[in-house]
Automatic annotation (TrEMBL):
UniProt-listed PANTHER family: DIGUANYLATE CYCLASE DGCM-RELATED, REGULATORY COMPONENTS OF SENSORY TRANSDUCTION SYSTEM
Top enzyme category: transferase
Enzyme Commission designation: 2.7.7.65
Acetylation as UniProt keyword: no
A molecular function (GO) term: diguanylate cyclase activity
Domain of life: Bacteria
Protein name (database record): diguanylate cyclase
Residues of the PAC domain: 92-147
Cofactors that this protein relies on: Mg(2+)
Catalytic reaction equation(s): 2 GTP = 3',3'-c-di-GMP + 2 diphosphate
Amino acid sequence: MAFQNPEADAFHWLVDMLESVEVGLVVLDLDFRVQAWNGFMENHSGITASQIRDQVLFNAFPDIPKAWLTRKVDAVAMLNTRAFTSWEQRPYLFQFRNTRPITGTEEFMFQNLTISPLTNTNGEVNKVCLLIYDVTEFASSKRALERANEKLAKLSMTDRLTGLLNRGTWENLVDAEFERYRRYGQATSLVMFDIDHFKPVNDTYGHLAGDEVIRHTAQITRSSVRQSDSAGRYGGEEFGIILPETDAENARIICERIRDAIEKSIVTTSTGDEIQYTVSMGIAQLSGEPENYMQWMQKADEALYQAKETGRNRVVVGK
């Protein structure tokens, strides 16, 4: 059967499509008064088209960034060209609740936004059309992937048992600090230390108890150093600390604080055993003598060896 009024039918289909499409459509005049508001916007805002028609958008949605959107719309109207904003630049324009069950971990709907100019019969821009795309599922997946990658990156840099920097990462920082000293000449110190008589701890209480002692050492170290310092687990029961902008005497004060805290503490294991232990520490303030960071580490290690040889549970500053 032939159509009686093709133009009316086409208009009806167009209106029906705009009402049912899963994209938000808002038409504004240049005073930001709402001229069109489709079903997507009604469903997610709870405001019908008849309720919001001719209202200023910012009055109905005070959370919308007025200055930002005004700049965007003014540029679109003046240049007669589209503008696009992704959720990564601005998570959303309208603060709609996320209603997708698959991506229920996100509180609000992430949105991409396109602003298009609309012209009158004279070719002048007198309105703009906002298209709001729900990209929550994609954004949520990307954010989850980024968080997972950040976690993997962190795990690759840290020691699993203690949470301190692992040996490779820590040594790289020692190298970087050595180069910084060569460039700027500021005082900097390196500390190497380990747990005294650690093997008897493992032999007497078991390796799980030994792990608890290592974790306890790391916790005290972390709580005793400054934010600018870098502590790492060098291997087994041995640890290292980089102390930037710190001379040997101030490094000794920091190390004495760690040594004293460990000596006075008791580790209660999961089996109820109580373990008291000590650490020995060696300090090397960097000078012009070492030719590379490995020689600097060697000097700190020699000071540690001297602390062991002279009775343990002490801090020795290398010469």
